Input
Amino acid sequence: MKKNCIYILVITVLLTACDSFLDIKPYDRTIPESTDDFSALVHNICNEMDQGSGDAGLAIGEYGETVLLEADADNMATNLTGGTDRLRTYIGVDLSARQNLYGNLYELIRNCNIILGEYENGRDTREGQDIVGFAYAMRGVCYYQLLRMFCAPPLADDAQLGVPIVTEFDMEAKPVRSTMQETIDQTERDLKTALDCNIQNEMYRFSNDVIHGYLARLYHWCGRWSEARREAQLVVKNHPLLSGDDYVKMMQTQYGISGNKLLVSNRLSEYQLGISAASTELTERPLSADFATLFKEGTNDIRRKDNLFFNRKRKNRKLIFSGMRSAEMALIAMECAYHLNMPDSALAELNDFRHHRILTDDYAYTMTTLPEVDTQTLVKQDAMGKPLTPLIQAILRERRKELYLENGDRWFELKRNGRPEWWVAVNGKKFWTRKYMFTWPLKLDDIRLQPGLIQNPGYEETF
Amino acid sequence: MKKLVYIAVAAMAVMMTTACKNVDDEPALNQGYDTTFRVPDAEPMTAEDSAVVAAQQAEYELNAK
Output
């Protein structure tokens, strides 16, 4: 009898263990409840921004990504090294990895949705409003990045599809792509709601000026010139352009907020090893003649003086930057003036910008002394699809110079201004950057699991 | 009989502490699926292409070295 009992006991244990084996996974997370819980979640995201790692690091831009995109664009002369350096040869090498960014951004959106959907007790306190404002701002930034990376340029003929909009924490939801306009509206709504929260705590990174800066970037990307100009001018007013030693000091400060920088990724010096390695790789590939010769004033341009940006051998000396500084806003404002048919304002602002960079008195252009349009350069049209004029070319060139090695700006400028195609030579072969490569692929897993989710053109063949 | 009980208890203890260690594990989502996009093959360079690269290198040697 005892023996039978033991057999029954053993069999019972064997058959009843892990009865939840086939249950839905708990996703290994618990939903936060208190203000402290949500604050901890936000601090975790901020920590990623500081480290330039994880989902948040990618959302605001991190140094590794900045270097990769700089290598993909045309500021560097890949043909001179023929692929013998350690930088990426062209975007095609890494297109498949781009889909991971898509997943990263949606993971961050999910965390923001948890905050926005689940946070109740304490939401109306000052700290609560900072937390909620942060979540709106961060989600807005994610949609802005998704818009730039995974959608066609909004002013292009093929611009129709946006990205899936997810505004609630629902792990089982399978949304399809929204329209381009719906994605733009969602981004704008999130950023404006964040502004309404009026974030006060500096620890939460998204000050009102930073959010205005992101709105300026969004409107600029979408060709909403009037609104972009208004937002950009507001930021510049609060963070005027720097010149002389102040500018040099800011550009030589790697970590933390300095000068008129508003937002900085990788802001802690403890992560200098990775940045230092990336900087070393950058020096292995010279800058292209096309880019280097834009600095026509030579060392009378403060960006060339004492090799601030690059040396005589066209090797990089500029510090990598991911974040936001007000020079970008000034450049946005002057380009908007041009598209709003305000050429005199655009020229005056361009000259004011050059006054802060050129050390001699001959910095100012007139409409008649603007350099002629260079027909040999890659960009041949502006964001509206119109042929370049001397004025818009001068503005775009100034942006190209100033924002070199910042946020992958040149890559996105190429995308915004016509998506030109070009090739690089590696081991006796030509590798083409094609028009479709400017719009990256949605994650294959999502395409497979979400019926109706449309992949971007050019990514039909997989293996 | 007692020996059998000890063995059974020991066996159960082992089962209870080690079974289903990876209860949350599932097959990787991409297992058996494609994960990579095909990009156009590189093209062979023509003499004209090589001349373009040579000119760029010559310009660099002349002006930047």
